[in-house]
């Protein structure tokens, strides 16, 4: 009896605050129509136990102590949702309100397999860049449709390309410093851990974690405890850029001792894709380990990478496609009974991050990340020394040139590897018995980057309706760029000499001109950059208004350090260059007026500058440290106005936008072939620069999702835009033989005003139907129409040089009408595409299984041009006129066509 009384007394005497320290947290889960979602699973990251919502969608967690918590809500056929909240000591019950889950078309049902092999060619392809939208669906109907339906056909919302988009991992930017673009291959295959971004903002909408750019921000938080506790296995079969994909992911959840682990790995491989000679073998790995020291402090170590080996496909002229078909690829040939591609991209650039999460006081959080990325990106190509061009589609080998018939061309339409080896064997020795070098070899253009980042994010609530974010980022890049010998093709060595410039050594400080396999050759230089940026943003919420403002400033220093001394540029090729510095600043704002709970008016505005990338700063960094004439910061001004409706039956967004880009610099590199009859010879590799480029993007967007029946939705999107150059541009060229040639040589500016910006259909429409069965199966289809796709222009034939003679006088036959006809920008035909997808998910106790299939271009339309560029060869009137009068022009644009019908099937098991 005494023992019982002692126990009673003990509990009676406990401080009252003990009871109040235990809080019940609850919420209701509903779908987009406000209907309860039964059996939705709720995972509390700080607990090993899950809870399941009841018949009215209700769930609760009891006895939660004060602290910061994170829950993940999931249900088959719906998108998962992650929520964070705080529990304070004075709360007995905390109501999280209604958690709304949006319907999902199914795991991987709408996945778009990026095939960016077109970007691996040096023949052009500036218009062939994937976008963030291809990997992450947006938050409204327009963004979803443009990503998964129109995005499969290289549609870019508002005409914005990869250069103007941002992807962040734990605050660390993933854009490359050479061209500002995002290399998705760095985390390709890691779908499970990048499926749901922590933040995904569209267009110029301000972000909490960065200032952002024109094309939106995708922010990933790789904190191990934020991933749902489960094991996931998946297998996919496709005919797009690979055949097979195997994927496995494990997340432990947060243990009682404060540890959490998430690991993921995949492989994508296959060698029988639609385009001839294309194959891929890519692995991927991801690891995240978190240690939570308290409910206010934890650290997380993340590492991921994706070693990828991928063959490329060539752009071709229309003549080649007419003879060989749309699957033709000139980059490969047979060797010992196997297909061998000369253009291989071998990239592996792993990333390691250490992130510290700290909660300060009741309303503030401070997150700091340090990261290090290293590795190499190597792209191979054939090289030759005092020999014929081995490219099967070299214009003199085409039937239209007259030397070969169509049958003879078909017989030698692929690279003849045996003949290349044979040519090297016949050239092994001089008559006196000494060694001779390779006639043909395979070389690799290699970039080895070492990137250190420090990213800091601080957020606090100044008041219940007022939030402040502060972001700081520092980046240090050291980039080693060189060409190396990959395969001598049976020769003893390759010559490190310039066959197009009297066989002078590429490095006159080194008397040894012999390069063995693995040795550097032709060029070698370092690029260094230090970049600092500071961003402040604030959001204030009122009864009828929501206002977000964001400002930033950044400073960067860049320089080149050459390892080779060039014969022609001895004082500007080797050693450290002068430092190029750039200062940027900008402001963004978002103002939302809440008409009522379902209708909103939203204005977004941005005005900021953007420093040039390495590719824009140096006109030919492989040889010299010369700056691109006229290079300076771009100035971007963008505004949009939207009406948004979020009803239970109809969800809609209608937007109008206007963006101007001023002072841009555009660099193209290609081989120009000009005969002396025009007054000068220009047969060399040319670096073409347009500076002071001004562009305008104007248009309107409409996206809607309407519930026709409880299980049937109609979705649609329309984008009507005009993206064009609004002024003539300064133009200059640089090549190793003729050095700089500015406007005095080209006799004026490039007359590009009113030419269209290439790279995307400027008008696109999509309408789809989707049926979601209560029994967890679904089927959908969409009709897509794409209009106003243009070829990427070359600048030199738009200058007065094109229609003037050697003395600068107008050519008599070059009438304005004829010049306009010869320099007209090609517009591709409008095209109709049909897509479909279907799938089903199953639940067996704690096991969840799903199967899905998506098919694009069901009608097998092979006439859609996904991109193309003008060849920069005919830069004078006489040559261009003669070429236009040929039945098969020698130098018509090079194009990529859509692959036709493609499919992606997926099956997964989760438990």
CATH level 3 topology of the largest domain: Maltoporin, Chain A
Number of DSSP-assigned strands: 49
Distance between the termini: 49 Å
* Helical fraction: under 10%
Question: What is the number of domains?
Answer: 2
Structural class by sheet pairing and helices: mainly beta
CATH class of the largest domain: Mainly Beta
Which band does the percent of strand residues land in? Answer: over 45%
Q: What's the Cα radius of gyration? A: 30 Å
CATH homology group of the largest domain: TonB-dependent receptor, beta-barrel domain
Name given to the CATH architecture of the largest domain:
Beta Barrel
Number of H/I helices? 10
Average predicted confidence as pLDDT: 89
Profile the largest sheet: 28 strands, antiparallel
Contiguous runs where pLDDT drops below 50 for at least 5 residues: 1-20, 105-115, 124-138, 675-681
Shape summary = globular
Signal peptide: 1-21
Organism: Chryseobacterium taiwanense
Subcellular location: Cell outer membrane
Protein name: TonB-dependent receptor
